[in-house]
# Entry
Amino acid sequence: MALVAVLPACERGCLMKAAADHGAVPSTSAQTPMVRGQDCAPDLLRCQHGTLSRSLGGFVPESRGGPTERCACPWTPVGECPQGCAKDDLEVAFTADAGPMQLCAGPPAAVLGGAIPEGVPCDEELGIVCHRGVLVRCERPLRLLATCTQGCTLSDLPSDVEDRAAIMLACKR
# Structure
């Protein structure tokens, strides 16, 4: 029963795969061909339009002409951000206690300025790196965004994250 609650869009083949993944082997007469779809990572956090959500793990089969929502991994609301999101739709693995504060817009725990220390692990494939409390955009030349007063909560972010949002997300509050 718990699998049905976690995977509301599942079809029979999806439930069979989930059962097999959990060690339950169905009888030969109950087996169906493997269903295409996507695995859903559990416990990611995201913020959309001021609502915090946590991802539910599982498997969602490809839609066969149904609504697009059937193809999406399931999320459950876990809170609200009174001042909105630091960045909408960024899916991040945070600890449960750090996530809500980091994903919500608010004053960052950072100061602008400082020096970029030697050995920041930046290359052009990385977007933004937080190393030893210093938040750096990995472009040539490296660009300092801020010095996090309480350290880093994320070590890297994609390059499409704006500077202010990166400071709110990466600097521990």
Summary: Helices lie at 2-6, 12-21, 99-103, 163-170. Residues 1-29 have pLDDT under 50 and may be disordered. The chain is about 15% helix and 25% strand. The radius of gyration is 20 Å.
